From TrEMBL:
It holds the Pfam family AXE1. InterPro entries: AB_hydrolase_fold, AXE1_dom, CE7. PANTHER family: CEPHALOSPORIN-C DEACETYLASE (PTHR40111). It comes from Streptomyces huasconensis. The lineage of its organism: Bacteria, Bacillati, Actinomycetota, Actinomycetes, Kitasatosporales. Residues 121-142 are annotated as: Disordered. This is Acetylxylan esterase. Residues 1-319 form the Acetyl xylan esterase domain.
Amino acid sequence: MPQFDLPLEELRRYRPELPEPEDFDAFWQKTLLEARQYDLDTRFEAVDSPLEGVRVFDVTYAGFGGHPVKGWLVLPAGAREPLPAVVEYIGYGGGRGLPHMHLLWATAGYAHFVMDTRGQGSGGWAQGDTPDPVGSGPAHPGYMTRGIEDPHAYYYRRLYVDAVRAVEAVRAHPLVNASRVAALGVSQGGGLALAVGGLVPDLAAIAPDVPFLCDFPRAATLTDRQPYKEIGLYLKARRGGQERVFRTLSYFDCVHFAARGRAPALFSAALEDQTCPPSTVFAAFNAYAGSERSMEVYPFNDHEGGGPYQQGVQLRWLKGYLKG
């Protein structure tokens, strides 16, 4: 698939005028205040694993509404002193999977926390173990339109809270240096890292890789790939609901969270990416408020982006912020 979006020089200048709710900050302050009324109740249970180079903990903590959220904590086997930590969020449809799928960051000397994704993890590539006990009104199959008529009921309100609480949970472990925690992820995971970067003021760094959940109005009308296509299919059946739907989405657009992010940030975009179009990624990058930000561009890649090459860039880049 050839490049289909704006030319790179225009992408570097792309700054859409996205309507931001007047109560955006108040909405999220109240949401997090309500979430913190529940004790975090973090439990780390050692896993009997054949992996000799790491120690694995099955983690449970209280996310949105006090609902139990699962995760893995993977530590270097010989760790005795608090380590910098990497919190990873998973792409759309996936769950935390199995511990041996998550060895990279621990072998690089970090505590690695992998958050499970409520209600997801049945897509065939990474199993999940966290249910979403909250129902919703009529929705298109998938997660993008669950509760989309009301920002308080929207699925991603619950998931963003889970993601913030994941940072709080990993900081509770005695072998984690709470002052040196980074957030990262690919696609949906990258969007969650951006949201957390805007909601948690003291992260050491974030690394959103081909992030999803950015510039909803453009994404929903530019690409016909899932999962953004779910929005269009929902509105196809519910004519006249566009204003209400996009108002809800405006509370969750990671361009707005980027405008509040301060931690050093490493983005990536792929210019043939039809799942998360590059203009939507650059919308978040160009809005990012932190003074230290950089972008890796992969001109001939689709949504796989840089893949292992981007991981190599992240390994070198994060070392300066977490181990420096």
